[in-house]
Each structure stands twice: as C-alpha cells, then as structure tokens.
Amino acid sequence: MAEKSTIQWISWILLLVGGINWGLVGTLQWNLVSAIFGSIPWLERILYILVGLSALYAIYEMAKK
Questions:
Q1: What's the pTM value of the predicted model, to 2 decimals?
Q2: In angstroms, what CA-CA distances link 4 with 49, 58, 63?
C-alpha cells in the first residue's frame, strides 16, 4: 500500500472531524465545531469549507483509482 501524502492525511483528519460532528449533531443535537469555535464565526466557517473540500478531494481520489 502506498504512503499517504500530507494532503491525504489532512483530508482524512478533516473528514473524521466532519463525520464525528455530524454524528453528534444527529444523535445528541450538539455541534462540536460550534462549541469549540462558536465565538469565532469566521474560523468555524473556514473549518466547514475545509471539510467540504476534503470530501471533494476524497471523491476525486476514489474516482482516480
């Protein structure tokens, strides 16, 4: 199995953060990202954008194989 690049690791971590956050929102109606970064709305928004970009990158990587 090939080594993962830095961008792949970052993407994987962001996808985990997004998945855990959505799991918490769905089960407990508690937004972890908002709880951590709620006082800094622009940072919260950037994190959501990065999670979305990570998902698009994961789709790209899977389609490439």
A1: 0.85
A2: 22, 13, 17
